[in-house]
Design goal:
The chain is α/β, with parallel strands linked by helices and about 650 residues long. About 25% of the residues lie in helices and about 20% in strands.
């Protein structure tokens, strides 16, 4: 669109004196059918004669604005935003007012980014209010718990903070996820959730009712799964329950890609045109999918008489009703949230809110002998151990924060006069080919950080972290980078700053057989050594077999550090994108064996051991209760765990 084209504002769409329905009457009468079809996604095109600029509705905001810009559809420089505790941690605070304030900060930063960039992001896809009925669910971090009342109350508070106090205009709209009975990630794009009437009304729908009728949610996203055999995108409860009974004021979108999946994965219809026609009739307004697919489907549905222009008009009205209430057509400047600037992004108030929310998310599970809190004047020597002691991990819907604070950082700041010693408990290893007599049988890095065979003097030392369930990471000590399987190639390199991505290519499985092992990649491919001595993956050739040489035994080092300290803080838990995330459910709730063994060993040498569990999903930690009992089921010397805390992914 040329810059000198005028966007007309002297139309009823821009007339604040008219009712919203009068403005929508004008809009649907003035738009061409072609223009309306192009508004059936979450975006709309430039329509200069009506004063409409291309905008989109969407973007994540589960616990802060996600503006990483690290995905194909929005590539660019990351924009740091305030990162709050994950929703499961927020919920642990039971503090409606504090969560509302966090929602306000999110709304303010959404507005400020809109002022900075334009385009959209004022109606965010949050909060997630699916019921966490199974603790193995991969998206436990995103929601507020297993209780529908608690979820409705906590989500409602967040929503009210996002939307603001104005009776008409919205600071930032909330789109509830996902309608409904969504609690399984495996095969989610084709499975059906079987729900009886009582569970539906008393459990699964309860938080949606509260979040809309009491919280003021603007929109809803449907789920991937079927409900009693009907894909959520064509479930007529969208129209009759969400819009009819609950009075949802805005629009409904389908989950990303679910439009085409109705044909491709659910196999519910033969054509995308049928999906669009029945989705519109069920009450879905915006189809979050490839725009060309949606456009062609709309044309197919119209040509076959499955829908009329009136059906499309209803969708346009619903999505533009949200846009009007967001102040996008506010000629008189009545919207109080316009032009909010840079002063709202990562300001001091938001930082303090993030700190307070993190504090309130901590749950003290056990405090034997009242060992906590520490007195900063008397604490002299503290050992901080564990694989999560000096790291900060982001989850899939986290933004890029302006700063990071690890547990070790916090303890050093809290006790500036104490001796603080630190060990991760992770072992450092060298890897070599099994049963080899050649000098070049050790694993090293070439000039491009590719893994290759080298002589012993050139061998790389790797830090091994076993996350359980066959998921391990290897970090090259020489450069601090993760070993990864390069995307779209068979090349293995040590060049990634973090283990992160929709597919976590930094995961490896050491598959042991007696004293040697094969190495398996994240996508179940076996590692081989090619003719040049470089490592790659292959499905046809026999896998290489390896052995390990221990350079440093991590647990032994942690024991030594713990034994010399007055108190020990053992920091264990998970990485939010390993073993459990969107599209990945857990198979167990037990702690990684290596972490449990680490706690046992440090507790055995120092009875003043406190365990901090930092996790975005539930772990079974019942065995820790027996430490210090008269007859513990697992012998740990004379030790016991004196305190136990669970920050629930806070810092």
């Amino acid at each position: 669109m040329e810059k000198n084209i005028k966007f007309e504002q002297n139309t009823p769409l821009w007339d604040n004196s008219l009712s919203i329905e009068e403005r929508l009457d004008y809009l649907t009468g003035a738009m061409t059918l072609e223009e309306k079809i192009h508004c059936l996604t979450t975006g709309c095109p430039d329509i200069p004669r009506l004063g409409i600029r291309a905008t989109y509705m969407g973007g994540e905001a589960a616990h802060g604005i996600e503006a990483r810009h690290d995905q194909a559809f929005n590539k660019g420089e990351p924009e740091p935003t305030t990162a709050f505790t994950q929703p499961i941690g927020m919920s642990a605070s039971f503090d409606r007012e504090l969560i509302r304030e966090c929602g306000r900060a999110v709304g303010e930063e959404a507005r400020a980014l809109y002022t900075r960039n334009g385009g959209g992001g004022l109606c965010r896809w949050a909060p997630t209010i699916d019921m966490e009925r199974d603790p193995r669910w991969g998206r436990t971090e995103e929601s507020y718990g297993e209780d529908p009342y608690l979820t409705g109350e906590m989500a409602g508070a967040y929503i009210r903070g996002m939307r603001g106090e104005d009776p008409f205009y919205i600071r930032c709209g909330a789109t509830l996820k996902h309608f409904y009975a969504n609690n399984v990630e495996k095969d989610r794009i084709k499975i059906s959730s079987s729900v009886d009437r009582r569970n539906k009304n008393e459990y699964y729908l309860k938080p949606f009712k509260k979040a809309i009728m009491e919280g003021g949610a603007e929109a809803v996203m449907t789920s991937y799964n079927e409900i009693n055999g009907i894909p959520a995108i064509v479930n007529d409860e969208v129209r009759h329950v969400l819009k009819g009974t609950y009075g949802l004021p805005g629009h409904v979108v389908c989950d990303g890609g679910d439009f085409s999946q109705t044909v491709n994965d659910h196999h519910f219809y033969q054509t995308h045109g049928e999906t669009l026609a029945n989705g519109l009739k069920a009450g879905v307004d915006c189809f979050t999918d490839d725009g060309e697919i949606v456009y062609a489907a709309a044309r197919e549905a119209l040509d076959n008489g499955w829908i009329t222009e009136k059906d499309i008009d209803e969708s346009v009205r619903n999505s533009f009703r949200t846009r009007i209430r967001l102040g996008m057509f506010d000629k008189e400047g009545d919207c109080p949230y316009q032009n909010m600037g840079e002063e709202y992004i990562n300001n001091e108030e938001h930082k303090q809110l993030a700190r307070k929310m993190a504090d309130e998310a901590v749950v003290l599970l056990k405090n034997e002998n009242e060992i906590l809190p520490f007195d900063e004047n008397t604490v002299k020597n503290v050992a901080v151990v564990g694989p999560l002691s000096d790291v900060w991990y982001k989850d899939w819907y986290c933004g890029i924060p302006p700063y990071e604070v690890t547990v070790l950082d916090g303890i050093r700041e809290a006790f500036p006069n104490a001796k603080i010693s630190h060990e991760t408990g992770l072992s450092e290893i060298r890897i070599r080919l099994a049963d080899q007599t050649s000098d070049k049988c050790y694993v090293g890095l070439d000039e491009n950080t590719r893994l290759k065979l080298v002589i012993k003097e050139q061998a790389e030392t790797f830090i091994l972290n076993d996350w359980g369930c066959g998921s391990m990471t290897l970090v090259a000590k020489s450069n601090g980078r993760f070993v990864t399987l390069e995307e779209d190639t068979d090349i293995i390199k040590a060049d990634k700053k973090e283990a992160f991505g929709w597919f976590v290519r930094e995961l490896w499985n050491l598959k042991w057989e007696k004293s040697s092992f094969t190495l398996e990649s994240w996508n179940k491919k076996q590692v081989i050594v090619d003719k040049d001595g470089h490592f790659s993956i292959c499905v046809d050739n026999p896998p290489a077999r390896f052995e390990i040489e221990i350079v440093k035994d991590g647990k032994t080092a942690a024991e030594k550090t713990a034994k010399e300290a007055d108190h020990v803080i053992a920091v264990i838990g998970c990485n939010p994108v390993i073993n459990s995330k969107e599209e990945v459910d857990r198979t167990t709730i037990v702690l990684p064996t290596e972490q449990e063994e680490l706690v046992k060993r440090v507790a055995a040498v120092n009875p003043n051991t406190i365990v901090a569990l930092i996790s975005n999903y539930p772990y079974a930690i019942g065995e820790f209760e027996y430490y210090g009992a008269a007859e513990p089921p697992v012998r740990c010397g004379e030790s016991h765990l004196s305190g136990l805390t669970e920050p629930l992914r806070s810092l």
